[in-house]
Amino acid sequence: MAKYNITEKKEKEATYRTLVSPALMDQLKDRILEVVVIQKKYLDKDYSAKRLAEDLGTNTRYISAVVNVKFHMNYASFINKYRIDEAMSILVDKRYKDLRVEEVSDMVGFSNRQSFYAAFYKIKGMTPKEYKMERMKNLAAKKKTPEE
User: Fold this and answer.
1) HEC-encoded secondary structure of 80-127
2) Does the predicted model carry a pTM greater than 0.90?
3) pLDDT of 8 strictly over 90
């Protein structure tokens, strides 16, 4: 017998795809959007997949399955997408022009500055500060251009 028992790694079939029926998946998708987006639970730093599952009366495996299949991302990326969308609005809102980036990060539900910057860069391809500067520059340029 060989010294090492080496076998080829087999591709695992994604079991979550068949874990939830299509009808239940559609229903859970709507309920997830209701809770996370409409109720803005993504702003809560401590709002986990476990808490979402409890709020919906289901389990985290079903939540993961629905988010993976219907939104093509994992739970953390799903939540961060909405947090970054909110941050982008705040960063260019005149009412919040004096806020530091760390304060914006906290407002949109990130636990720390590093995770905010990493998520922002992953989604937008630039830092929050770069985004704010670019947007402000574009807005200033539009104001200088006469109406046609």
Assistant:
1) HHHHHHHHHHHHHCHHHCCCCHHHHHHHCCCCCHHHHHHHHHHHHCCC
2) no
3) no
